[in-house]
Amino acid sequence: MTVELGGRGSDPAIVWADRTLTYAELDAAVEQWPSLPPHGARSHSARSHSARSHDASALDLPDALICVLAAARQGSAVRVEDPATRPERPAHPDPDAFLLVATSGSTGRPKPLARTAESWADSFPEFTDITGIRPTDTVLITGPLHATMHLFAAVHALWLGACVTDDPAEATAVHAVPAVLREVVGRMPRARLAVSAGAGLGSAAEQAISTRGIRLVEYYGSAELSLVATRVVGEHSALRLLREVEARTEDGYLFVRSPYAALDARGWFGVGDLAELNGTELLVHGRGDAAINVGGTTVIAEDVENILTALDGVRAAAAIGTPHAVLGETVCAVIELDGTRELDLVRAEARAVMAKEALPRRWTVVQQLPRTASGKIARGALQ
């Protein structure tokens, strides 16, 4: 299956740095991209990682997208990985594989994944209906393509016939994690739509975006599962499962069965998130391995982070557990301040609004929290 281009002729497809490609130029570039050599032959192409797959990992975004679309058109596989942290892959990949990608590595080293073209393309119509992204939109991509949220956003935009850009001033829509959204929408004078993913939205980010009159859509998913559930802020109070997605919980952990899952996540699959289900409505509490046991009370790290980032003076926050001889663990807060308030005032406000067990016992201020390529907090690095 190919990923068809939704635009035609002189419509802009990619406007990136000093390079512009119309849909006609993009289609021609995809068609002219070198094919892989026959199986068993030696590859002389600098654009292929091996005789078995293309490699878009180190290319700039326009060429990377051309390579990905060419692989889909040729029925070949393509690697889109972080060149600095390539995961080890099986010697004989699944013959159905199209995209060879990886998890974000937010809790450790990225894990290899493989998916078919259909596992994304089949979700595009429903995703379009929910988000309201239009062919006339210019979609801002806020990070590298090896972060699968960005790759999904770019491929969906080109399938739809929209334009992909790196220029916030021209963008009308954006996909990003909440921390990035809060910052970038202020540089998007034409913004009408924001899609939030990769972490819980939180009240601070929700308010910062919604008060600008921007349509805000949140989705829950993962590199392994792709889209699982969505909500339109202001219209729905809870995430809702996509039509073809099934979910259940076991001991509080979420398991999903989906046609949009990677080949590595077929059947009932869980990424370790704690959640609650009410019919098709989903409430996600965050990673189970990020839960903090304070004297027998389970404190969800993302809940603490959402409260802290809503406080005046806090630009970003992370919560982790630290060992305690009596309580087992206590909460440690690692925060970025925005320069408008001192730490003492932030701590005093936190004491007034947080439950005793969730209140951080230790506070560490950093210039910048460690993050993955998509902008999520890299908890493995924090620990």
Give an overview of the whole structure:
The protein is an alpha/beta fold and 383 residues long. It has two domains: 12-283, ANL, N-terminal domain (Rossmann fold, 3-Layer(aba) Sandwich), CATH 3.40.50.12780; 295-382, GMP Synthetase, Chain A, domain 3, CATH 3.30.300. Helices cover 23% and strands 30% of the residues. The protein contains ten helices and 23 strands. The chain has helices at 23-32, 61-74, 118-121, 124-131, 148-160, 178-184, 203-210, 301-309, 343-353, 379-382, and strands spanning 12-16, 19-22, 48-50, 53-55, 77-79, 99-102, 112-115, 138-141, 163-165, 173-176, 193-196, 215-222, 226-232, 239-241, 246-250, 253-257, 273-278, 281-287, 291-294, 297-300, 314-324, 328-337, 362-365. The strands form five sheets. It has an eleven-stranded mixed β-sheet with strand order 2-1-9-8-10-11-12-13-14-18-17, with helices on both faces. The longest helix is centred in the first third of the chain and has 14 residues, at 61-74. Mean pLDDT is 90; it is low at 41-50.
Number of strands: 23
The CATH architecture of the largest domain is 3-Layer(aba) Sandwich
Give the overall form: globular
What is the arithmetic mean of pLDDT?
Answer: 90
Adjacency order of strands in the biggest sheet: 2-1-9-8-10-11-12-13-14-18-17
CATH C-level class of the largest domain = Alpha Beta
**Which range best describes the helical content: under 10%, 10-25%, 25-40%, 40-55%, 55-70% or over 70%?**
10-25%
